[in-house]
Queue: 3 jobs
Job 1
Amino acid sequence: MSLVGYDKHGSVAVLTVNNPPVNAMSPGVPKGICEGIARANGDDEIKAIVLIGGGRGFIAGADIRYFSLPWPEGEETFKHIIAAFEASPKPVIAAIHGHALGGGLETAMACHYRVIVPTANVGQPEVKLGFPPGAGGTQRLPRLAGLVPALDMIVTGNPIKAPKAAALGIVDQVIEGDLLDGALAFAKDKGTQDGGHRRTRDIGIVCEDKGIFEAKRKEIARRARGMRAPFACIECVEAAVELDFDAGVKRERDIFTECVTSDESKAMRHVFFAERAANKIPGIAKDLKPRTIAKAGVLGAGTMGGGIAMNFVNAGIPVTIVEQSQEALDRGMGIIEKNYAATVAKGRMSQEQMDGCMAHITPSVEMADLGDADMIIEAVFETMAVKKEVFAKLDQVAKPDAILTSNTSYLNINEIAETVPGRDGHVLGTHFFSPANVMRLVEVVRTDNVSDENLVTTMDIGRRMRKLPIVTGVCHGFIGNRMLEGYFGEASIMVEEGARPLHIDTVMFGYGMAMGPLAVMDLAGLDIGWSKRKDAGDGTAADDRGAYVSNRLCEMGRFGQKSKRGYYIYEEGSRKPAPDAEVDQLAADAAKHFGLERRDFTDQEILERCLYPLVNIGADILAEGHALRASDIDLVYINGYGYPGWRGGPMHWAGSVGLKTVYEKVCAYHESLGFDHWKPSALLKRLAEENMTFEDYDKENAG
Ligand code: 3HC
Ligand code: NAI
């Protein structure tokens, strides 16, 4: 069946792209469009041509899978479509609904005219895949929209809605009623006009200030650190100003070709498909419908509970938040209010919207007020005894079929579920990240007995909260925090061996992490680990390797940023970490205590010792089935732990290093250092020996 339909509506030919689900430009689509244009131009009855998408949208751009696959020999491409449009004596009109993204927008811009429904989006999201637009987008968009808006759209990759596209001149008319009817009327009108029709390439570009390019580079310097694609986008738009149209298109194509084969683009395409795969849970039917969650409850209005309550409201679900005292409740509600007010102050929400959100949060000190909630998230203190007590109380008041979840960071949720046997299948984990209203990740912890329906419902709620829910099994720290122990552990161990905190953090920041590990520890609070160590031992916080400096800092009241001192010193009102000689001395004491010879570290050793434990532990988690796929682990690290998306996540990155190299180093560090996080994973060993990557493993498992 042809991927592009051809119909005659009086004097207008309508070409309909039918390539579900999103009308990507897969092989066959460009060919179908070119044939349709030729046919229409050969038919004297036809005066104009409409290009429209069947199904959900116009065209979502190039078929991303083909950036890693050979394009069929001799098959038409964007180049041929665009040439056919521009050579067409009859006007070609793009009729846009849903989305015109990437090559979809480039196709539309190469048409003579564009009409659009008010709900549609247009955008050039290529930068999010690690390359600039490659079918003339960087040359045509500035001609239609003006330089500054075009530069912004291309560099951020964010789409804009139809009314804005119309205001910028990217589209010619917004169609309020039926799109095809509106497009046909528009086309008939254009078809009767004499003379040539306007081609986007012939529009001049006005550049009042060439300084915009340098200013844009400066603006994105920190956010895009280490990346090539956003800067490549700027270069391409700059070419639109510097060169004539054809030379600009050639320059864009050269830069696109260079970027598309880069590690950065491979990593970002991996992330694109990883996010889509994460929604799928093997063994659960795709059509299993989530339950309706009309009302929600949150227990605990502390750091996490408040943000979680906001998430429910943002998903349109009214929520009751319960605290153990009026004072704690007032404090929690005050923080929620402050958070919304900050969003209003930034202009991202109106006062009315804020009032509406606040009205959907019911504060209470009565657990019984959770009696009408369909889903309740517990976010009280992190001790098993408190959690069990709270679940026993919830058991008394919650609806019989309410979904009960724990936000625990480490505790065994199977054990918590066992305390409410009458609620078999209804208890699981939702591990949000701090700040819970901001961070995109939520680990959905699949207990042994949770029903498929309740798991699917919890994933759905996560998505409705605009989060990225990732399924994880029950194990200490789930996916993210379990791996983090190796990462933080090695950073602290290296400090005892002579590595300066600032050196470690600079290397990891340079690699692309949002912050270095020791700065993160200072931000989270060193007292958290300290009190965990005290709870686990005889109350004296065992001076294990890696804990010595942190224990001493806590004994001195240096808990990190909150006390202005930790691994670093923070001046009043500043978050900038400054090195401290006292910490160097503590590290020297640690070396003496453990009988270590302090030494200098290379950047490479710091990198390996921070990152290879993540890969090694990640491989164990995967082999145990506590992660469904390696790509889920990558998403956890990117969305919850400040790992650079353009590196594709630790498991993908390890593949680019070579698993054989990683495995050999893990073995060597295990031999010299001996810590548990270096114990070589059997899966890592197998993949290294078989010359495979974690992506190969995911494919093997997906069958
Ligand atoms: N190529 C191949 N597959 C694509 C695709 C594309 N461009 N866009 C989406 N898909 C696939 C997804 O992988 C998914 O497959 P699955 O069901 O097997 O998991 C399916 O289509 C549905 O996708 P979503 O789940 O994302 O559907 P949504 O309705 O949530 O979103 C969308 C639709 C907004 C179009 C979103 O899919 C999207 O943003 N797609 C990518 C758009 C893009 O980046 N376009 C630029 C491509 S590069 C380009 O055009 C180069 C050019 O300059 C030369
Ligand atoms: P918090 O100490 O800020 O808040 C806990 C709140 O629970 C307090 O306000 C307390 O008064 C309330 N509470 C205690 N017992 C209660 C009861 N019986 N009934 C009603 N309220 C009760 O703690 P935080 O940081 O919000 O952590 C909550 C949970 O989230 C813990 O399990 C923690 O491990 C987890 N978590 C914390 C993260 C963080 O960064 N703070 C990140 C991810 C998970």
Job 2
Amino acid sequence: MPQSFTLPPLPYADDALAPVISAKTIGFHYGKHHKTYVETLNKLVAGTEFEGQPLEDIIRSTAGKNEQVQIFNNAAQHWNHIFYWQCLRAKGGGKPKGELAHLIEQTYGGYAKFKAELADTAIKQFGSGWAWLVMDKGSLKVIKTGNADNPIARNIRPLLTIDVWEHAYYLDYQNRRNDHVDAVIDKLLNWEFAAENFSNAGVSGGFMPAMAR
Ligand code: MN
């Protein structure tokens, strides 16, 4: 029997990100939305060529294929959320350090301009989606993707992401996505995780071996 995908434990307690993201939001976002992506994905791949395949392989082979859009959506959302939970931490935010900070300085002309670009991208994603800091062919970029779409479907390496689906903030911020995004950037971004992703950027093969399941 091939192994099914499972909902990995959150890397912190439900209330660790409060008051920026409440325990109630985490309860729905992780406990309902993310859990449902995992359960739906397992049902969709059962008995297909994708059963037992690594998550990233499923994402890459179904990306852009109309007949496999449901599998893609649920596989990519599972991956996006595993990644997203690690992008946040209690007492996070502030400025990045080390080589990544240096590249941000070089690329954007300072942290303040970078922050403005990331916030603007997250706010302007029309409807559901994600804002990402990525390494694309050696260049640091801020990009946005709609719905479940993600950088690994395009062979671009993500360093950080912000979920801008309404389910990520509506209980705490209602329509004020800008306030949510500002607070996440200032207080929750996990720059240590981004630096790890950045330093692994030259490794060949899968982006996140630990995230295969
Ligand atoms: Mn989400």
Job 3
Amino acid sequence: MVHGRLAVPLLLLGLAAMSRAEAPQAAAARIDALIAQMTLEEKLGQLTQQWGGLSQDINPGARQQALADLLGMARAGVIGSYLGATGAEHTNTLQRAAVEESRLKIPLLFGNDIIHGYRTVFPIPLAEAATWNPTLIEQACRVAAVEGRAAGTHWTFAPMIDVCRDPRWGRVAETAGEDHFLGAQFAAARVRGFQGDNLASPNAMLACGKHFVAYGAAEGGRDYNTVDVSPQTLHEVHLSTFRAAVDAGVGSIMSAFNEINGIPATAHPHMLQTMLRGQMGFNGLVVSDWGSINEMIAHGYAADSGQAALQAIRAGVDMDMCSGAYRSQLAERVTRGELDVKVVDAAVRRILEAKQRLGLFDNPYIDPALEKRVMLTAEHRALARDVARRSIVLLKNENGLLPLKKQPGKIALIGPLADAAKDMLGTWSLYGKPEEVVTLLAGLRNTLGPNAKLGVSKGSEVQAALAGGIDDAVKLARESDIVILAVGESEDMSGEGHSRANIDIPQPQQELIEAVCATGKPVVLVLFNGRPMALQWAADHVPAMLVAWQGGVEAGNAIADVIFGDFNPSGRLPATFPRVTGQVPIHYNHRNTGRPAREGDRYTSKYIDLPTTPLYPFGFGLSYTSFRYAEATVSPTEATADGKFSLSVVVTNTGTRAGEELVQAYYRDPVASMTRPVRQLCGFERVSLAPGESKRVVIEIPAQRLGFYDWDAKFLVEPGVIQFFLGPHSAEGLQVDAQIK
Ligand code: NOJ
């Protein structure tokens, strides 16, 4: 055995005295001392994460046995982290076994997927991105951290910062949409929100930027699929959100399931070493994705589990999530001299450092009273409602049908999502409770009071017809003055492993919509969705349409706020909505081609059966008022690569209600040494305006933001003309030109 036992009592004294105020050198020395005491088995244990939850679905005897197994591993010191363990009681029980009964008394690190809230479930991340308000979402992540840490989670596997340009991919729901500039703002905000100022405080969780890298570019939108991406797009788009997260101090990164240009991300030395640790300067902990180390066998990159484990640890993956390969394979590799124990030690150090930063050596336990106190407070609910209503995007509002009056006559609420609590929670809402959700029906009742004339009919199931459903819905519509249609996707139609080849409204609901519209009653369509959807028929036939996403625990109240005008909608699409699935991939920041689409010219880049333009462009969203843009300026008109441009535009509220406009700044580099997108978002700013009021909105753009990566992935800011566009979305805007000298 390499490490003696004699020094243990001394070491424990040291650990007990370790405090977060301690000088970094002292903390490092103590971690070194601890590593020096560890057996190889204990080291590989620290590198191992395993499922630590207790399923409610098994019988009490099996549960008892499962708990005994978890406790046994903790006592033996052969586990560093449990995933899925939650609740003060369960996590404290496990922690006690590690801290009080294992040889070295190293605390366990509890990791969980707290993606958009713990008990207070916020809208899905894609919806949060539709607020275009990173500061607000930082607060939402703070709430998640307060509740999550109080329930025993030290480490959340969030933020998910993949950029996705393919709405078929189920995990688009977890992203901030298709744009990397917007994505980077949210990545940084979420890291700050989860981690707070001090990871050791009882309201902070270690964040995990995932999935490194380019997971959002899965071919065909099929989850886990191959990624083949150009170096330019990799650097400019997919790596940029990770740069932002690292700059914001993210404590951990998760490697992705996918391969990148032939090498699995789980063992990609160029990505993990050269880019992440080298260029970005990341010095935190890297964890694999679930089982992804062994999956390198199926990828065709490793012959067996031993080779896979060796490849992953050498490439820089510190912790093995749930494949078991590190613990079962690496001891032999070290003994055989194939793996330097220093590589193992470096990984162990990063894991112990994370535990140290989280204050676990001092305060390993959770206060059960705190857990009870902080969950789903009125304040947390209020924030969830505010985020949800700010995430709603008004796509269409013919003749000002919305907002409805609070005495609208008889309302028919029709559709399978009218009273669908679970579906409001969306993907990855493991700890939210459907019984705590305000559905749309409940939200309407809350707003209209008990005497509201409100009829309800399901009409169809989400993906199947309901016998007599359409007849019943049509009858109700005919008897009513206005119809609210609650249609779209259930929560399990997006998320991991839930890609769709067709992003239409499911056929049974489409038939319901058409039958209800045929009654001629005014219809407000409320779409529930975990992705951009193809809504051509609805856009052509329904007078008013709201995108409500999966809005979380306060979804119904938030939608009612918008429908009845207590809140003027201000959400904007964070991803393009195509006309049909066949247009996918479609994203606003594409390149121009040598033959850009031209009306009447067949031999240009387009389809013969459809326009090339989307149904609703990136950045689009209406308000109950209207805005006019005028007097766009740029100053200076010339700047050096380290200078900056100040863009400004006068926005006037030309309607009759107060409202908030989101001024978006895009740029185009029309001639460069690599072709550049037709437009690229480079800034945004919101402005609140009373009816008739005008304000000049200023957006600062550092010239560095206008650069790009060349063929050798070198970052350049080239001299030449830059065209700026200031407007309400990616397909409009006033142009002003400037020069980079
Ligand atoms: C697999 C997912 O890809 C990842 O995002 C998640 O954090 C882990 N499973 C753990 O649940």
